[in-house]
Amino acid sequence: MKIQFSADLDYQAEAIAAIVAVFQGQETCRTNFTVASLTDHPQMDLALEGEESDLGIGNRLRLLDEDILRNVRAVQLRNGLPPSAALNGMNFTVEMETGTGKTYVYLRSIFELHRAYGFTKFIIVVPSIAVKEGVYKSLQMTEDHFRGLYENVRLDYFVYDSQKLSDVRNFATSDSIQVMVINIDAFRKSFTDPSKEDKANIIHRPHDRMTGSRPIEFIQATNPIVIIDEPQSVDTTPKSRQAIGSLNALCTLRYSATHVEKHNMLFRLDSVDAYERKLVKQIEVAGIEVEDGFNRAYVKLLALDNRHGGVRARIELDLLQKGGAVARTAKWVRTGDDLLDLSGGRSVYDGYIIEDIDCTPGREYISFTSKPDIVRLNESIGEVDTDHYKRLQIRKTVQAHLEKELLLRPKGIKVLSLFFIDRVANYRGYDEQGNAQPGKYARMFEEEYATEIKKPKYDSLFGEIDRATAVEGIHDGYFAADKKKVAGRAVTLFKESKGEGTTAADEDAYNTIMRDKEWLLSFDCRLKFIFSHSALREGWDNPNVFQICTLNETASVMKKRQEIGRGLRIAVNQAGERVYGFDVNRLTVMANESYHRFAEQLQREIEQETGIRFGLVETHLFANIPVTDGAGHTAYLGTEASAAIWNHLCSKGYIDSKGHVQDALKTALKQNTVELPEPFQAQAEQVQAVLRKVAGNLNIQNKDKGRPVKLNKGVFLGEDFKRLWEQIKYRTTFRVEFDSEKLIETCATEIRDHLKVGRARFVTRTARIGIDRGGVAAQEIAESVAVFDGRDYQLPDVVGYLQNETNLTRRSLVAIMIRSGRLADFKNNPQKYIEQVAAIIKRQMRLFIVDGIKYQRIGDQHCYAQELFAQNELFGYLSKNMIASAKSVYDHVVYDSEVEEGFARSFEQSDEVKVFAKLPGWFKIDTPLGSYNPDWAVLAQTHGQQRLFFVVESKGSLFSDALRPIEQGKIDCGKAHFKALGTEVQFTVANNYSAFSGELTGA
Question: Fewer Cβ atoms within 10 A, N terminus or C terminus of the chain?
Fold first, then answer.
């Protein structure tokens, strides 16, 4: 099967046209020069086989710099990019997201530049073996495609080899298109000192067979067009930039998705554009998190710092919260800090006192005084068993793979899954005779695959295949390898790879990957699951990778964009044709973190690596909006007009002075009320369309602007409100009594009936990632749970802990736990048991306290002053939670629920209600269950005679059974409080105004 290439993709045509247009006005011409002949040198492969021509052929440019700059600015205007103020060298940038065909674009640009201007000499500079092999494979795969597209125009290509200098001479003398692929390391070392020439790359050394000339001089004379693939990894040092300069390029074209330096940007297809145009796969993240697994001393080293008055470390640990629950929290620590104290007294941290903090680069760690554990940077201790975790990752990957096969096999699409590992031995080992033995991940995979395929829903995938042997041949590894003699026979053994694909062994691995690229896409190939070394990640980008799972034992340094980049390309079917659409193209990443963290990190990387600034309006943003004049000619709005629109948006408060989108713009876009200057009304629709992309779709929460609520002085200063306030303003104190034996029995019963202690769980939450100009957002679409049954932890002192939390005696606590009959649950999950038992006991203690509570008014001087209404400002949202009012102490009532809204409207409309107030948050009644804030104070008048004073609690239900115990307890305390005031106020609970009006008529 061969991958088919489309010549009609509009975005690729735009990128190619942008490069070609730079040389608009250039005549077809070339330069000639003399090339010294070579003599045979078998060791250096310099046999010329009858080569007689000594005439070199090179590129030639006739345009002036001002011509080039004018062309560049025209291209930038057309493509909506900021215009270059000056040329500053012949460097041009094309930005294309990973997986959108960057290599195809620059290879086809070679043919277009030759057809338009006669340029023939091109050098592709790459950063690594991985990219070099990828480019070479692309040249092979596109050979027939370009031959048919460009009427059999001859193109010769080769990978530079210092042992084959005849290729360099042929590059200089041939009149056909010549493409040299060269690794930056092959010509980075150049020395002008003759005593050091033997240390320079061969390309820079004088050579006897070239009459003392250097091979680089042949290249320089051709004035080649240099194409840099991934420049952020190529010209990163002064030596690299000097090496690029030594090529004497006519111009340098720079292609990447993540440019660091952007010279004369001509075309941009960034990650947002690619996602919105569905040119890459949609991303799903299955984040696996551990819940209720707090039974060990968990510590993770996040960062170290020696710049703030001594050495310190930022760690993550499990802290006891105020309510008794445990939460994973980050804290800075120094030498001598005791994690037992820092964790809130959790006994699992006993002995974990920080002993040593080492900030030395490459060996960062922390250690403890009484424990042997050493925690290295980005690593942790005390987590659940890692093998359980990895097995679950493998299981989820297999499940996702099989589900994709059900969907895509009928469409003729082969599904592949990719596992990254950091130790080859985890996938494959060898016995003393050199025979391959499966590593632990291979065994886990085979066991999980064998289990999953037994499910009847996968019957259609196997047909007559024996499922007992179905796992054979479906997984394999791509790793660096050594050929050795073991037990008298030659064997090939996988080996660890320490570098980023720079060794000869790594090159063999890449050769294998690239050689098998198309074969893997065929149904005839049984291989579906590929294991590869994470250090070799750069070479793996097969279009039919639909699942990616990283199984690194140590902290993964792989960036999110690198991780997803291996599977972003659009899938191909058995005919080699791309199949577009998110219904097919969905990449699932098995992450060992929450999908929220994954999405946040992905957005940070996109911002850092691409320069995309989410939610930002740039001054040139509207420059490429087309404008048609009266004669029907189309031009572009231009940078000056774009800047005028930007200034207007800023003056209206739609954006701030730096261009950041404000809520005012989001609201105006939603309501279609964006105001634009009169000269640009004809382009209003296009301008708003651009703004919608920048403001974003997924992350916007459209809210009205909050407005302050003003004091209604007519009510506030009136006699009615003063009389109402006199009835309710006083404060009280309370005391309690309860029966301890009855408390023990009640707590035991509650624990027996309501304790729910499950084992620690792995929770996998899958979210779909959305990328737009507003940012990266994650929308959860599925959740699944797996139980972790490990019990390799020390049981804590449960009685001591509960005694600290409840202040009950040890005897009472032991009696409660024994009578409950649920002590066995303590062993299942000690921390969860402790949390729930403590919560149940404290809740029952509060309720017992309420039953025995006695309130007493303190005195006339202890009260809430009426002036507090004027001193505390109130805010609300007009269309969300506030209504205008004439009877309330404020000119608007801010409500918290539909029930409260109904009361407010009814109070306003009722003839009986004279004044009322939604009691502010500062009006609090002390209770043993926490502060209580009633809802309403009301002054009503019945039959035009009797004045009645009420405090009203508005609830959705009148039945106490329907209210939470704490909530009902607070209401009971409120009732006792107002009774103790000794005033005329009545406390009542109502679920609507009709229920409250019954109190009026019955009064």
Answer: C
At 50, list the tokens: 């009858």
Instruction: Yes or no: say if 919 and 987 are a contact pair by the CB < 8 Å rule.
Output: no
Three-state DSSP string of 77-88: HHCCCCCCCCCC
Instruction: Report the candidate in 149, 77, 65 with the shortest Cα–Cα distance to residue 107.
Output: 149
Helices (H), 797-922: 798-806, 810-820, 824-828, 830-851, 868-871, 898-909
Distance between alpha carbon 80 and the CA centroid of its chain, in Å?
27
pLDDT tens figures, 391-419: 989 999 999 999 999 999 999 999 999 99
- The separation between CA 624 and the C-alpha centre of its own chain, rounded to angstroms, equals 31
10-50 per-position pLDDT tens digit: 999 999 999 999 999 998 877 777 676 655 544 344 333 33
Residues 6+ apart with CB under 8 A from 745: 819
Task: Return the closest-CA partner of residue 284 out of 585, 14, 542.
Answer: 585
| Distances, alpha carbon 252 to alpha carbons 72, 247, 248, in Å | 14, 10, 10
DSSP 681: G
Tokens of 513: 């990957």
CB 916 within 8 A of CB 728: no
Assign 3-class secondary structure to 355-368: EEEECCCCCCEEEE
Window from 76-80, 159-163, 551-555 with minimum mean pLDDT: 551-555
Strand partners, 493: 482
H helices of 50-128, where?
65-78, 102-117
From residue 54, give the alpha-carbon distance in Å to each of 35, 50, 177, 208, 220: 5, 12, 18, 17, 16
Which pLDDT value is given to residue 512?
58
Residue 416 and residue 567: Cα distance in Å, rounded?
Answer: 10
The runs of H, that is alpha helices, within 438-587 are 440-452, 459-462, 504-515, 560-565
Joined tokens for residue 889: 């102490």
Cβ neighbours of residue 375 under 8 Å, at least 6 residues apart? 299, 300, 301, 315, 365, 366, 367, 381
E-only strand ranges, 637-792? 707-709, 732-736, 761-772, 775-787
Q: Which two tokens stand for residue 47?
A: 């046999």
For residue 570, the 8-state DSSP code is: P
Q: Single out the residue of 588, 535, 19 nearest to residue 281, CA to CA.
A: 588
Best CA proximity match to 502, nearest among 477, 540, 535: 535
Three-class secondary structure of residue 862 per DSSP: coil
Q: Give the confidence band of 484 by pLDDT, cuts at 50, 70, 90.
A: low
Work out the number of other CB atoms within 10 angstroms of the CB of residue 254: 27
Whether the full predicted model's pTM is greater than 0.90, yes or no, is no
**CA 305 remoteness from chain centre:** 25
